[in-house]
Design a protein that fits this description.
- This protein is of the alpha+beta class.
- Among the domains are: about 10-80, Roll (Ubiquitin-like (UB roll)); about 135-220, Doublecortin domain (Ubiquitin-like (UB roll)), CATH 3.10.20.
- The chain is built from five helices and twelve strands.
- The longest helix is centred in the N-terminal third of the chain and has 12 residues, at about 35-50.
Length: about 230
């Protein structure tokens, strides 16, 4: 008889049902950490801050239900829901939505609201440039499981820094509470919107100290085009 070793760990990304702007949260699933499927769903409920307890997981494209830990595929992405049906959205491309704007002969023009200088839409850098906006991505301090949160910022509207940090607090959802500062990947604080560089990555920090971790190396797909971003 040959003895079987422990089941291999599986890394999966879970999205919130009906939330088109949530980038998904990464979980590492092992039998020791989650002995049952119910234990895993309870952890997903707490981590995703869903209003109702998560009781179902679905595949994002075809809506197939996941009935147990054995159905999870390493590297797979799933949508967490309560008792409601799966809301069919493009979860694999969060935030990609037809932009609000006015069609003219030269194309779409960006309409950024002065009340809320941070757009919730995300897109690639070229798309942002076409709309007269710049984009950056924000990691959560000390979190090596969650992908960076994408932000699109209007170039022509002055960025109120306190408003920016308040919006980050709402969107990034730090476990330590409010976002007190934004840091470059080397830990240097950013003190104003004029210091934000289009296409770069930053870390949202609360009351705690900045944690020097390999955010970019572990959480950003290492395609050749992405390698040029590096550390700021």
């Amino acid at each position: 008889m040959s003895s079987r070793g422990p089941a291999p760990a599986k890394a999966v990304v879970i999205h919130r049902n009906g939330d088109h702007f949530f980038p998904g949260r990464r979980f590492v699933v092992t039998p020791r950490r989650f002995p049952t499927f119910e234990a895993f769903l309870d952890e997903v409920t707490q981590s995703l801050h869903t209003p109702l307890a998560v009781r179902n997981l679905y595949t994002p494209r075809h809506g197939r239900g996941v009935t147990g830990l054995g159905d999870l595929r390493d590297g797979g992405q799933y949508v967490a829901a309560g008792t409601e049906r799966l809301k069919k959205l493009d979860y694999l491309n969060p935030g990609r939505k037809e932009p609000h704007g006015t069609r003219k002969s030269e194309g779409l023009q960006c309409r950024c609201l002065a009340v809320s200088p941070i757009s919730r839409r995300c897109g690639n850098t070229g798309y942002s440039h076409a709309l007269g906006c710049s984009s950056c991505s924000v990691f959560r301090n000390g979190d090596l499981l969650t992908p960076p949160f994408p932000l699109v910022l209007p170039k022509r509207i002055p960025l109120e820094w306190d408003t920016f940090l308040a919006t980050l607090t709402e969107k990034v959802d730090l476990s330590s509470g409010a976002v007190n500062k934004l840091c470059r990947l080397d830990g240097t604080p950013v003190s104003g919107g004029e210091q934000l560089v289009d296409g770069h990555h930053y870390v949202a920090v609360g009351k705690e100290e900045y944690k020097h971790l390999p955010y970019w190396e572990l959480l950003v797909p290492q395609h050749p085009a992405c390698r040029t971003l590096g550390y700021v």
